[in-house]
Design a protein that fits this description.
Elements lengths: L2 H11 L6 H15 L6 E5 L5 H6 L5 E6 L2 H14 L2 H4 L2 E5 L16 E7 L8 H14 E12 L4 H13 L12 H10 L3 E7 L18 H10 L4 E7 L2
Length: about 240
Amino acid sequence: MSATEKSTTYAARADYQHNAQYLASKALSDWSLIEGVVRGDVLNVGCAEPIDELQWADQADSWLAMDANQAIIDMASMRFCQHASAELARKVRFAKHSVTAAWQANPLGTQQFDLVLSFSTVEHIPDRYDRQLALARLYRWTKEYGYCAITVPNRWNWRYRRLSTEGQKAGTMDFVYEYLYSPLELKRDLERVGFHIERFRSDYRLTPWNGAYGYGLPDGWSQKWAEFKMLFGPRMGYLCRRT
């Protein structure tokens, strides 16, 4: 099954907005990146279900959600209208567009945004050149001194890598994950297109209850240990700024 076919199948049966484990992961990796920076005009690249729109769009002046698959756009728009207030619905619109489409087909023109989101999107692009093109487009769409938040699956998480590989072979994955980034590789590629890195997050969170704060370590080392462990969360990403 192709990536487009899998995306269409996902659109027909997706219900991640009621999946507690998914929402917890999303809150730790995606939403913790954008806390405090959602304002002005927002672009969400690869929107899938309208979870981000329902959670955050009330803090924006306008919100454009786009996806390359028309079935996903139709599903997202329908679900958003079912749950959003009339006031919120006036802020948000959905449009079909690919982040790697020919520039002549770009419906955004010269429009730029205060915040650009790309949550679990670029890893579905198989070609390295097109992935770099996608990151360059995200930079182009970000206003000067604006922000871009991007998250992807983490190659350094061995369990996620194994489950993803097995799921692809068995055909049980909703999406085709064409490429898994490491934190260092993603950072390097973001800086290459011009972004300045502001913060890193993953859905690996350390709590006193799992002993991961480093009990018994010298003062100052517990935080370093926590930051190191965060590099191996299943989903990770960066908040970047265009300066």
